[in-house]
Please model this.
Amino acid sequence: MQKLELSQLPARLVTVPAWAIAGDALSISREFVFADFVEAFAFMSAVALQSEKRNHHPEWSNVYNKVRITWTTHDASGLTQNDFDMALACDAAARGFGHAPV
Model:
């Protein structure tokens, strides 16, 4: 997949307003907060299944009820449409756990 140009990023970010572009413009990230660890882990499992299906995997961390996800495309050395598609998939999965759309 082709790396997005800097000029393309603002329009893509509008589709995932809760996500932030890193200062180097090579990744997007977001933190999700859930009711407890079990809910956070269930969310991670849902995202993991989508990641495997799409062969695009996040960088993430989990501390109790918090999950921080970063998307980047290493092969492209930056952001691609896949990253924004997966951010949308994360947002959709989170809605299943009571996260309201932003």
